[in-house]
Design a protein that fits this description.
Layout (H helix, E strand, L loop, with lengths): L10 H23 L14 E3 L7 H9 L6 E4 L1 H13 L7 E3 L2 E3 L1 E2 L2 E5 L10 E7 L8 E5 L6 E3 L2 E8 L5 E7 L1 E5 L5 E8 L6
């Protein structure tokens, strides 16, 4: 009811902002988990490996990185990153972090290891670590979006006014257009069955 509740802040803009934030979170989840285009479901069989001994180890990540050239990043659930850190400490290995856009992030062999809480953790306390090469020029993983859509509110996202109800409530239909593509099978790999629980957990 914008006419009644639009001061001191624009209620329509605030409601749209909150809706867009929720939609963007869902978009991240779908890009990882969607059964049609999600990254976890589009890893080639030859690019899937399992951990040697349960928890993710330096040897496991070396094998994962060895399956492709120019791996740009690793994505893992925060608990999987912690589990990897424990395995490094157990072996007396202390990986150097790197600077990424002004922030220090953990890395392995110079490849940033980024947290992604959209990667699921199974009931048996295992998770996956994704490795990918990115960019069209490098035949990597690329994000897809729809440009120039009607009523565009943000890139590839529109907010279409649907009218005002009999009770003076304004309605908008907010839609996001996105997907992902793996240009060649070796651009994307996954380390599966990585145990994330410490002994005794």
């Amino acid at each position: 009811m914008a006419d009644l509740y639009n001061d001191p802040m624009n209620q329509v803009q605030e409601q749209l902002r909150l809706t867009v934030e929720a939609l963007r979170e869902r978009q991240k989840h779908e890009l990882i988990n969607n059964s049609d285009f999600g990254l976890l479901h589009n890893v080639d069989y030859r690019q899937r490996i399992s951990t040697r001994s349960g928890p993710p180890t330096p040897d496991d990540l070396d094998e994962l990185l060895g399956l492709r050239r120019n791996t740009r990043l690793l994505l893992a659930h925060p608990k999987a990153i912690v589990a990897f850190g424990r395995e490094c400490n157990r072996r007396g290995i202390y990986p150097h972090g790197i600077d990424l856009d002004g922030s220090g992030v953990p890395a392995w062999r110079g490849v940033p290891l980024l947290p992604c809480n959209k990667i699921p953790v199974s009931e048996s306390r295992t998770s996956s670590i994704l490795a990918m090469r990115t960019g069209e020029d490098d035949q990597g993983v690329v994000g897809l979006h729809q440009a120039g859509i009607p009523d565009e509110f943000q890139p590839s996202l529109n907010a279409r006014f649907m009218g005002i109800s009999e009770t003076a409530v304004m309605s908008y239909l907010v839609s996001a257009y996105y997907s992902a593509a793996v240009l060649v099978p070796s651009a994307l790999g996954v380390l599966e069955n990585a145990e994330i629980s410490a002994p005794g957990d």
